């Protein structure tokens, strides 16, 4: 029996949607209404595919929370009519956008798969076709009439990852993304192999909730040897600042200079939410393990555990939109909501 899942393909912009004009050599935006003509392989797929595109495709470097909500609203409007969604997006900020969508959609029971490519779809050596075709197949996977994947995923170069666990690690290789703290959800080889143990289990009794209020008054403060009091003070004095992702060393360590700890204490008291994440691409924050993180714990810095910076930014915006008390914020941030931390 054929599995005719209905898949909605959402094109936001990025390299995957470019095609080369062989007369001029220039890249131009691809007309997604002609998708089936340009990628005849899609005709062979058993799924019913429809496409929708941003009116003006955007480079992913220009991506921001306004566009995240736009993607979410396209999915919301079409949620009941499709079995799965594939979002085509530029790779540079894909981990941020895909992480954000994972928090925007609560009690998701269908797949939202982000993908893109390092080379345009019209290039002879492109990785776009494989990424696109396999993403559609993954979004269409069903068992007993229900989607197999029920979370926001990111598919790139033969691997499907939980989106909010990913980081872009390479600007030149086809294998552009990694998920250092969580195993892939599926791998594509001769067969499509799904890691069922790693999948997010949906609560099907709960109705879908879509959280559209994000607060983007946040910044990332990255520690480096020699960072000065005047620099940190200047950064934290930003008007209307609500949240900080503090990128520390190793397992959550930072300078234990008195000025640094006192500055953090001052801003925590003012109600700024400060979250500690590690600069390392793998591993976890464990505040209090070393003397250089004891001070952070004492002044009320929130532990990001093994969350990525991208997911921390998205989760911070999401929770700041809820206007929670400091203790409730800390408890919820340190809890895994969508599988974003171990």
Automatic annotation (TrEMBL):
Q: What class of enzyme is it?
A: hydrolase
* Keywords of the record: Hydrolase
E.C. numbers: 3.5.1.1
The record's listing under Pfam families reads: Asparaginase, Asparaginase_C
Q: Does the keyword Transmembrane apply?
A: no
Task: Give start and end of each Asparaginase/glutaminase C-terminal domain.
Answer: 218-333
GO terms for MF: asparaginase activity
Which protein family is it in? Belongs to the asparaginase 1 family.
Give the protein name, as stated in the record. asparaginase
């Amino acid at each position: 029996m054929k599995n005719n899942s209905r898949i909605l393909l959402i094109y936001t912009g990025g390299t995957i949607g470019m095609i080369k004009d062989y007369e001029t050599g220039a890249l131009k935006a691809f007309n997604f209404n002609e998708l089936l003509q340009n990628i005849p392989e899609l005709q062979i797929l058993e799924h019913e595919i429809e496409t929708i595109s941003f009116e003006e495709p955007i480079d992913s470097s220009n991506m921001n929370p306004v566009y995240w909500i736009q993607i979410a609203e396209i999915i919301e409007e079409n949620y009941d009519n499709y079995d799965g969604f594939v979002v085509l997006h530029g790779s540079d900020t894909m981990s941020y956008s895909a992480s954000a969508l994972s928090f925007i959609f609560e009690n998701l029971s269908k797949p939202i798969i982000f993908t893109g490519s390092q080379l345009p779809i019209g290039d002879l050596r492109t990785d776009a076709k494989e990424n696109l075709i396999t993403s559609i197949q993954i979004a269409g996977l069903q068992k007993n009439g229900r989607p197999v994947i029920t979370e926001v995923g990111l598919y790139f170069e033969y691997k499907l990852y939980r989106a909010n666990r990913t980081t872009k690690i390479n600007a030149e290789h086809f294998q552009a993304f990694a998920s250092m703290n969580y195993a892939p959800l599926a791998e594509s080889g001769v067969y499509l192999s799904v890691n069922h143990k790693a999948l997010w289990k949906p609560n099907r009794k709960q109705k879908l909730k879509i959280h559209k209020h994000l607060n983007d008054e946040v910044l990332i403060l990255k520690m480096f040897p020699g960072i000065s009091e005047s620099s940190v003070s200047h950064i934290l004095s930003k008007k209307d600042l609500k949240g900080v992702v503090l990128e520390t060393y190793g397992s959550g360590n930072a300078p234990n200079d008195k000025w640094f700890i006192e500055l953090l204490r001052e801003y925590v008291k003012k109600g700024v939410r400060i979250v500690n994440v590690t600069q390392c691409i793998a591993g976890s924050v464990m505040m209090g393990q070393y003397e250089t993180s004891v001070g952070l714990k004492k002044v009320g810095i929130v532990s990001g555990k093994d969350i990525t910076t991208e997911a921390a930014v998205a989760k911070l915006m999401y929770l700041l939109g809820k206007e929670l008390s400091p203790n409730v914020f800390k408890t919820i941030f340190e809890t895994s909501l969508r599988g974003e931390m171990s």
